[in-house]
Design a protein that fits this description.
- The chain is α+β, with helices and mostly antiparallel strands.
- It has a single domain, classed as M1 Pyruvate Kinase, Domain 3 (Beta Barrel).
- The protein is 15% helix and 28% strand.
- A six-stranded mixed beta sheet has the order 4-3-9-6-5-11.
- The longest helix is centred in the N-terminal third of the chain and has 9 residues.
- The two termini are 17 Å apart.
Length: 165
Amino acid sequence: MSKENQPSIRLIEGLGVEDDAHAGATVKHRSRVRQDPSQPNLRQVHLIHAELHDELRAKGFDLVPGQMGENITTRGIDLLALPKGTLLHIGVESVVKVTGLRNPCTQLDGLYPGLMNAVLDRDAEGSLVRKAGIMGVVLKSGTVKPGDTITVRLPQLPFEKLERV
């Protein structure tokens, strides 16, 4: 699940991250393949906010970017608050369309016992909050490097809240 930090990654339109296990036009996640292998892959790119790493480190989880399987780590963007359909212009040419929230799985506990529960929370109304990042699909190919600028383009109103994908 963990991914080593790279000097750059290549995003490929309609497929995802070049050479990534989840790249493809149709689903790659085992449980979703069992349900229907022809369904579209809404999980081509996984983004996590570095602020989550900070929060988890404060709780004793010594994580580094990529360790929870994310392809891109951001800072200063409230990823979890973005609406569905938001466009992320990353670097010079890449565009990723936000499709939903990552649904954390028990594989996280293989990294650190209790990590899965640490990325789940409850809001004021008692609803489950998934904090393990967001997922997207690649609309425009390009190379992404650490430090690249990410420009957020919100979709037209009304906004759709992110749900798990």
